[in-house]
Amino acid sequence: MAWLLMIAVMIGSSPASAELLIRITEGADSAIPVAVVPFSESGDMPSGDKISSIVRDDLTMTGEFRPLSAEKMLSLPSKGDEVYFRDWRLLGQRYVLVGQLTRKGDRVEARYELFDVNREERVMGATASSSVNSTRSLAHHISDRVYEAITGVPGAFSTKLAYITLERSGGESMYRLQVSDVDGKRARVRLESDEPILSPAWSPDARKLAYVSFETGKPAIYIHELATGDRTRIADYPGLNSAPAWSDDGRSLLVTLSKDGNAEIYKLDIESGSLKRLTNHWSIDTEATWDHTGDGFFFTSDRSGGPQVYHKSSEDASPRRITFGSRYNARPRPDNDGKYVYYVHQRDGSFHIARTDLRTEEETVLTRTGSDESPSLAPNGRMLIYATKQSGNSVLTVIAADGGAAYSLPASQGDVREPAWSPIAR
Amino acid sequence: MRGHERDVTSAGQPPWKSPVVLSVLMHGLILGVALAGWSWSTPREDPQPPSISARLVTQNEPEPSPVTEPVDQPDRDEERRQEEEERQRQQEEEERRQAAAEEEQREQEEARRIQQEREREQERQRQEEAAEREREEQRQAEEEAARQKAEAEAKERERQKAEEEKRRQEEAARKAEEEKRRAEEQRRQEEAERKAREEEERLEAERKRKERERRLKEQQLEALADESEQQRQSEERQRREAAAAKAREAQMLSESQKYQALIRERLSQAWYPPSSATEEMTARLQITLLPTGELESVKLVSTSGNTAFDNSALGAVKSLSRYPIPDDRDTFERYFRQFTIEFNPRRLR
Amino acid sequence: MNMTTQHKALALIFSLGLIAGCSSTGDTTEGADSGSDVSAVDQDGGSTVYGGDDEDGVSSSEMTEEQRQAAEERAERAEEQAMREITTFYFDFDTAEIKSEAREVLVAHARYLQNNPDQDVRIEGHADERGTKEYNLALGERRANAIERFLIVNGASRGQTETISYGEEKPAEMESNESAWAQNRRVELVFQ
Questions:
Q1: What ipTM was reported for this prediction?
Q2: CA dihedral for B157, B158, B164, B167, sign (positive or negative)
Q3: Using the beta-carbon criterion (under 8 Å), do B260 and A119 form an inter-chain contact?
Q4: Could you read off the pLDDT of B42-55 as tens digits, one per residue?
Q5: Could you name the CATH architecture of C73-191?
Q6: Which candidate, A59, A23, A120, places its Cα nearest to that of B311?
Q7: Closest Cβ opposite residue C138 in set A240, A328, A351
Q8: Where are the domains of chain C?
Q9: Among chain B residues, CA nearest to A116
Q10: A-chain residues within 8 Å CB-CB of C164?
């Protein structure tokens, strides 16, 4: 989305405030220039991507930062007293991250410092370490700290993505449930099936996934403990068993079942397996997720003719329609503070990700790609991942949650679909 | 914008200077003065001198109507004064006439008395001649008697003399009394005249005082009018000066706006609102520039409450190596020596 | 049932079957016309129809009344069987409305199920790739349910039918275009 320069100037009308006042109401149309200086290294370092380059990629992915390439740097300081602000100011940089890596046994320790070039101040300095074979975690941790120091918002680089890949060859299909870092690296297959796997959903503690698998020939909902690989089939009713979504306490799921005739939303207690029906309409009601209060939920219903996003402020309240912008708005995903709801939005025959400001009811289309599906918001609410088509294949793309720069995750073979961004592990 | 306000005040006259109000005010003043004049003079005016009044009562003169009604028409004053004068004049005439009558009566009485005296003397002489003759006749015989008679005569003469003396003394006393009375009368008359004169003088003085006061008021009002005219002219002058100043100011303002826009653009490009920014956040920084356009100092005068946001604003302000400022030093000093920048995102992405 | 319509449809199917039988050599899933027209769905129905004809048609030289009636019955059976070869039914975007041209075929299926109570049918609902996966699952189910209801209303019994929705997961056509989408918005009957 283009930034508009919209600035009002006001001169105080009373003599007491006669001083000139210039109002700045829009910021730069570009990402924050930041220099991530390659960290100095002492001792054997594991092969593979450098920590500083992982940090650089993390910051880039957000769309909020524009890291300087190392070749353009005038100097390569690794600690504070080597940082000459003038140099970095000349390069137009706002922040400089420097650091030192030290091998200590089977661990790698990082000492790193972040400087504000214009204010000529050290913003943050810290030490962190990781085992030799998980330096990517160390890098993501540093990215989190840097991001929070600059933006005031916790980083989400140490979180995970769950998604489904589909490989088709010679009439055979292979579905795989995978979990990776947010940059798509360190992907691991958690489930494989030649029947569809759908709708992965993270438990609030980021330890479990609920999903729909057709592995028995018909859809059923499973809960999958990631650490152990243990699986529980939690819903296997006649007809649809789909669209699981966790409650914030991790004790129940919202699910879509059609056992009573057509697609309705139920609350499924995980422990007891008991069901409470939350919708009752001849239309399709599905794709439910709890809102930020945990009392109400958003869902998709075609009770007005086509699929639209609805909200029930409590389990028993009557639904309120949220979307009106076009004939097709579905699969709502609200943010954590009740400000926006994101969803799939059809316009002019193609599908985009849009969001509606719940306060103003203003709708904004966030994506320029078509065939966009499955939006999932980062736990810090700043980034959004979704699936889109790229030369016939489905790929994952990360955008800033307000529609900023896009970053495509490296595609594996076949389709990559239904990304689900994990909560921050606790 | 301030010039505009001033313009408004000078174009519309303050209510106390509008001609209508002024005239109403002047009439009010005159009325007030007249009323005040009445209230001052009435208590001193009405009591008549008691002697005159008493005399007039005895003469059954019509009692003068007491000046009690506080009539406020000024011409009644004059009328009343004329009446008063006329009455005064008539009184004097009357008094003079009375005095003459009294004098005549007194003279007639005197002449009658002298006549009687004389007749009485002639009678006595006639009696004495008869007695002489009797004495001549009876002198011999009546030597004793003659002597006695002479004694008696002497006694009589003595008595008469004493009587005469007494009468003369009485006459003198009476004359003196008369004289005194006349003098008294004279004095009274003079007193009355003096009083009348004094009253007249007092009235005259009063009239003159009022005249003076009226003239003073007129002068004052004239002065007031002059003053308002002067004020008007001065305002006119001020307005012209203000217009000129405003033109200059407008020039400076337009110049300043040009540079404000430049600063705005530069700062907008240099400002990276953090992700945590909300439309409710506002940070105000006070900037002091050197005449070269370099940043001399910056002060956070109002925090957004969000450190990242405040820092982004400070970073933006400090990132400009040189601020675009006008060449005109006055404009610089007026607008850009020190100013405030407010960071408040209106449309977050 | 309107006889003229039935005859027309019969003639249409026969002629198309002939064309399909001539043109297709084994690989029959490709080359279908776009869409919604029932006749466009050839499968390998044409050849099967001809096989049936071959069986009965050779020895007849002269028709008695009995023979004529038998022939009519045979023709009807053949007609029905030909229609029953059609097992895929198409839908418009975001609808579960059975198209008029599908109704006779579905009636034939329903009669067949009625006449063969041991025969079960699995009704598989599908959607095209557009829209959200979970909504499409529900939409596929709605389509399957629509077909199921139609079959039951026309003679099938509830115990014979089973529905499942695959949503957009099992497209018939892999392309992303209108014609592929039209092929993919469907319900398939699988007789077991």
A1: 0.88
A2: negative
A3: no
A4: 444 444 444 444 33
A5: 2-Layer Sandwich (3.30)
A6: A120
A7: A240
A8: 73-191
A9: B315
A10: 217-219
